[in-house]
Design a protein that fits this description.
24% of the residues lie in helices and 36% in strands. It is α+β, with helices and mostly antiparallel strands and 365 residues long. 24% of the residues are buried.
Length: 365
């Protein structure tokens, strides 16, 4: 099976997709082309090409059944090299000539994306964001501040998502109390009143994203949300040129469980926000019915940067559309508690100073 590479009609260099201009651009001669024009030229060239049969008899290299089930072999359409990659890879670069390689056949009927959000953050911007991330963050461990943080790898990656849409019909019940105090002769009387509070309504969810990649932790993918879905465009293979991409390897049913959790959390928070004016509020019951549920596959842009410190690998992720950032770099407990103790000491010192001044003024005797 062959990969798909879009070449410049002028100089034959590989083209990459510019999400902002929605054009295929050539990094060699600087020309830009409408994707439909390039696709038409590619089709003409493919029709004119006559494949040669130059078969060689080779021995089986002894892949295990597990390796064969998880690995696919493709021929680079630029240099002809044979590429081995995971069966979920749909866009990558040739390890030999560096040409962008797209393998649309890797998509299944179920996982072929309907939408894609193009990259707006360029590689240079992503690298600058990584360097700036460590500035002014006082709780980062010292090992990240002693010297430059070298980028081990940077990947321009389209991450697969399942987008969920639904209406959540919900009924919530809470128990609330109010407390009032009044004087009755020599006594202070406190009255506590108890209320049963009902709320019912419908929330509409549209394009609720759930990361469909086993390789990316949900904590990271959800930390760089939201994506602006209004900028999504219909998926076409040429939009992957110049980036890496994987098809979904987590099915809809599994992702639906995460979607249900997010729907419940958002609904609970929205309904709880309507209950006010009580001293205490305790949830008693909750019932949510999902209706008109929809699901569709999509690809969203993410820059993934890895860096190593003392033998450990850390991940830095950037929303390729909005620039939202996150990482799994830990915060320093020693620095945190040191700052807390410093603040406590400062408050205590201020308190002693205030007492001393008030005593000198004769206010405290």
């Amino acid at each position: 099976m062959s990969t798909l590479t879009y070449k410049c009609p002028s100089c034959a260099a590989p083209l990459t997709y510019d999400g902002r201009a929605q054009e295929l651009t050539c990094g060699s001669c600087g020309n830009s082309f409408d994707p439909e024009t390039v696709i038409a030229i590619n089709q003409i060239e493919q029709e004119d090409d006559r494949p040669e049969d130059m078969s060689w008899q080779v021995e089986d290299q002894g892949f295990t059944e597990e390796e064969l089930s998880q690995t696919r072999a493709f021929n680079c359409s630029s240099c002809g090299a044979q590429l081995f990659m995971e069966d979920t890879t749909v866009a990558t670069e040739c390890a030999f000539c560096g040409s962008p390689s797209i393998i649309p056949a890797q998509f299944t009927e179920e996982t072929r994306p309907e939408r894609i959000i193009p990259f707006k953050i360029e590689k240079a911007q992503a690298e600058a964001m990584f360097r700036d991330y460590f500035k002014g963050r006082k709780l980062i461990p010292n090992l990240f501040l002693k010297g430059p943080n070298r980028i081990e790898e940077i990947r321009k990656l389209y991450v697969p998502y399942w987008l969920f849409g639904c209406q959540a019909d919900a009924r919530m019940t809470y128990r609330g109390t109010t407390v009032s105090t009044r004087r009755s002769g020599q006594y202070m009387v406190t009255t506590t009143r108890h209320f049963l509070i009902h709320r019912a309504g419908t929330l509409t969810f549209s394009d609720l994203p759930v990361d469909a990649s086993e390789r990316l932790d949900n904590t990271i993918s959800e930390s760089i949300e939201p994506f602006n879905t209004k900028e999504a465009i219909p998926f076409a293979p040429h939009t992957l040129s110049g980036a890496q991409a994987n098809r979904a390897d987590v099915d809809q049913d599994t992702c639906q469980q995460r979607a249900n959790t997010r729907v419940r959390s958002t609904t609970d928070s929205a309904f709880r926000g309507t209950v006010s004016g009580y001293a205490t509020v305790v949830p008693q019951s909750s019932n949510i019915q999902i209706v008109n549920g929809t699901t569709l596959p999509a690809l969203y842009p993410v820059w993934l940067i890895t860096t190593k410190k003392e033998g450990k690998t850390y991940i830095f992720a950037i929303n390729g559309q909005t620039g939202e950032q996150t990482s799994n770099i830990p915060w320093s407990r020693a620095k945190f508690f040191g700052r807390m103790l410093g603040m406590a000491a400062g408050v205590a010192a201020a308190g002693f100073a205030a007492v001393f001044v008030l005593g000198m003024l004769g206010v405290l005797k």
